[in-house]
Amino acid sequence: QAKRWGKGGYAVFDQQMHLRAVKRLHLEIELRQAIELKEFLLYYQPIVSLSTGYLTGFEALIRWQHPKKGLISPVEFIPIAEETGLIVPMGKWITQQACRQLKLWQEQYNLKNPLQISVNLSSKQLRNSHLIEEIDEILAQTGIDPSSLKLEITESMLMENVDIAMNILIELRKRNIELCLDDFGTGYSSLSYLHRFPVTTVKIDRSFVMQMQPGNSNAEIVHAIITLAHSLEMTVTAEGVETQLQLQQLQWLECEQAQGYFFSKPLPPKEAGTLIQAFPCWK
Ligand code: C2E
Ligand code: MG
Ligand code: MG
Ligand code: MG
């Protein structure tokens, strides 16, 4: 089949592959420089309690402030950071920065109800044998309560290396660090199976939340996830909440927390701080 395309076909294919490889290599070089030049920053998206309407915390989401290309989304560079292993030092910086920011806010606004900070981990970090040490160090340095830190992991990260993941999660839970199963519903494993891992929260993927209409199949799926999570004594956060109707449905289903553009987009630190002040009863 391929032979019929003739030599030209191969040449075009080779050229495209070559271009992609060059682009990728270039991005990798830029990524290494960006770490040196400290071009990364964290944005913060609020997470809200659906029973009280109070702000309960933020998810830290990385951005790359590129000198020429502007603000670059993590979807563009996290996969390359993972492949190259750069995610390990980056991830340490992310956790450090997020915990520092939380400490600053707690002091600045004299928070009696300590907010939580959620940090995304990647699978390479979970396989880094120094992860626990690093997190202990960060907690000691910043002085935040371990229960104020919530680490987000995906089911594929757990399934990639069941034993290692299990041991690390147990260590994290011993410290009272919260664990959240991110993007839930997009993988293939059942919640009953995942319950073996000591996760405390399930975060329903936004693809289900966004397509939820009263009575449709997505609403049924969300309902089922919430019911099962509750029976397994896990709390539920819904991501990607954009409308009042979605919010009302989630409240009716007794989902604990929500996050999404309906409340706010991810914000730079200063604006997130302003939002802490604006939310009801944050003290
Ligand atoms: P995620 O952890 O599932 O984060 C949620 C993503 O959904 C964020 O995209 C957020 O901006 C977006 N989002 C939240 N609410 C809404 C909404 O109402 N509508 C829509 N359309 N989108 C919403 P973002 O910031 O582009 O991050 C994408 C992914 O990149 C994250 O998905 C996470 O997997 C990864 N990522 C981001 N920051 C980090 C990080 O610091 N470390 C690691 N390892 N991964 C990160
Ligand atoms: Mg997340
Ligand atoms: Mg998510
Ligand atoms: Mg997601």
TrEMBL record:
<protein>
    <submittedName>
        <fullName>Diguanylate cyclase/phosphodiesterase with PAS/PAC sensor(S)</fullName>
    </submittedName>
</protein>
<feature type="domain" description="EAL">
    <location>
        <begin position="24"/>
        <end position="280"/>
    </location>
</feature>
